[in-house]
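Can't paste images in this forum, so I'm doing it all in text. The chain is below; anyone willing to post the predicted structure tokens underneath?
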Amino acid sequence: MVGCELLHGSGLRLMECLTLRVQHVDFGSRTLLVRGGKGAKDRTTMLPAVLVAPLEGHLARVRRIHEQDVAEGFNRVVLPEAIARKYPSAAREWTWQWVFPQERRWVNHATREQGRHHMDPSIPQRAVRTAVQRARLTKRISCHTFRHSFATHLLESGQDIRTIQELLGHSDLRTTMIYTHVLNRGPGGVLSPLDQLTSARPRLHGPA
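Text version of the structure:
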């Protein structure tokens, strides 16, 4: 599922991923705009190059669903209140649609309007839980684990912690610094001087 790959590749929280709109994806600059993240903050994060083609394919399928909804006289998406007042017709525009819409349309029985909410978080959560069980993993893994992996892998590759803070949307650097403790693996994470010598030159075989 491309959504789960975005969690790992872009450092998104689950709801930040599910509430992405089409206009928040910039394939040209390979970035994602996160609107109203934790603390009601906006930020920009990366779109991995390897996910460009899968996400384009996903959006092509979503657009066909959107166009079919419009052809049937439906497809209204919930908009921010200020936008809904200023641009009443925007609810049917492609650019405002969810990247990950729900499978079934909602129905307003009073007005007979129909549309689509974004995907319910229980769906990717259930998919991850099922995958973990099938893989017989013993560690506790959730959708949020992908975000932790994103931060940890960036630190391991030597990325600046201030940059990681911005990508994750942390207000306090101390929150980001927690990930540095993950890299402190104790004796198991330290390479022995003998191993360093052995890896640098062929090992001499002979009597001990």
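Residues 52-71 form the longest helix (20 residues). The chain has a mean pLDDT of 85.
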